[in-house]
Amino acid sequence: MSLRRVPVVLLTALCLLILTAIPSAAAVKTTSAWRDDFNSLNRQTWNVADYGCFAPGNVSVANGQLRLRTVATASRTCPLLGGRVDTYFRRTFAPGTYAARVKFTPRKGSGEAFYMTGASGRAFPSNGEIDLAEILGRQPTVHHLRLHSAYLSGKTGRCTQKADRAVPAGFLSQWHTYSVTTSANRAVFRVDGQVVASYRPNGICTWPFSDPMRAIFSATGGAWQGPPDKSLFPATTFVDWFSYRPI
Q1: Which of 67, 43, 79, 92 is nearest to 218 (CA)?
Q2: Could you tell me the pLDDT band of residue 26, with boundaries at 50, 70 and 90?
């Protein structure tokens, strides 16, 4: 496919610019409780990525689970080819609790994530990004949490509030429920119902986290995630369900 011949860094930047700069007014705005148990892949809600180092063939649903497969390739641009689904231009979620039950598969060079991005129409990072779980194969015992936004001062770049949680070996390869509850003045992260991090506006970063949000699940690797050990692939990220509950 011709898109995969474009340098992945440039392509990723272009996709982010397009997806964050265009308002998602046509998307269904969800303000009541909603849940997807992935008994099928609802294409009215989920887009399947077909660009960069993502391929539709690596996304499937079976036995009530969303499956994102990552495979090794001979490509220098995409040594690992993964899968991604998102709700861009399909469905947005008002402030509340976003949660998913996920089983990651960290391998050397992999990058897996469950995150939300703002649907305000502003470009990243002004629209905001919430990383509920960013899992890197080179750090298989670290659970990365992030709030990305812009600087109140107007300084360029992303302003980040974050936590890097040390977890036991093998923890991330087990089923866990990751969630965040957002409001105008707080974001509370939980794992299996237990609070693991909490943030408030800090006077440095903007706070777009009470804007409508979009959900993303992705599995890829082999770029900033570090050189992969291709003998450890294919690998699959499993998502049992995704839910939203308004505040």
Answers
A1: 67
A2: low
